[in-house]
Amino acid sequence: MKLAWILWLTHVLPQPAADSLCLSTTVYLEARDQSALGQQAVAEVALRRRDSGLWGDNLCAVVTARKQFAPTIVSPQTRLSNIGAWEEAVTVSLDSERNWALPIGQRRLVVPGASHFKVTHVVSGSWGNAREVATIGDHTFYRVPGLLRQRG
């Protein structure tokens, strides 16, 4: 599957199917070589950003916001060809969405408050007053105080 085709498909699918496909695609592109915990952390950041409304009010808007997540950074011709990794990304994404639908106090949080992450050996991004929340695999997760309305 090519990324361009998947992104096109998200425009014709109804909600919430489109959001689940966007989240799965992002988890695959950002963390397919990471543990399930690392993949959950990436999904959690996207879900937290959706809730904030600062990057969009649905997951597709959030993960396709300019230069925020892999779907807008890698080439649209990128092929998602690792079927095993795709299946795991879909499973992690759906589980993460179910977890996020729980009341705030019942959610299992992997990276509490994290709104950003970077792949340590690839990105050198910095967010002024960011506080490191966790490092899982080769991803470091950050909370930027005051940036998000904290809902988890």
**Total count of helical runs of at least 4 residues:** 5
Shape: globular
Query: Strand content of the residues, in percent?
Result: 5-15%
Number of strands: 3
Roughly what is the average pLDDT, rounded to an integer?
92
Main pleated sheet: 3 strands, antiparallel
What value does the Rg take, in angstroms?
Answer: 14 Å
Strand order of the largest sheet: 1-3-2
Helix content: 40-55%
**Structure class:** mainly alpha
- Separation of termini? 33 Å
What pattern of helices and strands is seen along the backbone?
HHHHHEEE
Low-confidence stretches: none
Explain what the structure shows.
The protein is mainly alpha-helical and 152 residues long. 43% of the residues lie in helices and 10% in strands. It has five helices and three strands, in the order αααααβββ. It has a three-stranded antiparallel beta sheet, covered by helices on one side. A hairpin with a 2-residue loop joins strand 2 and strand 3. The protein is globular.
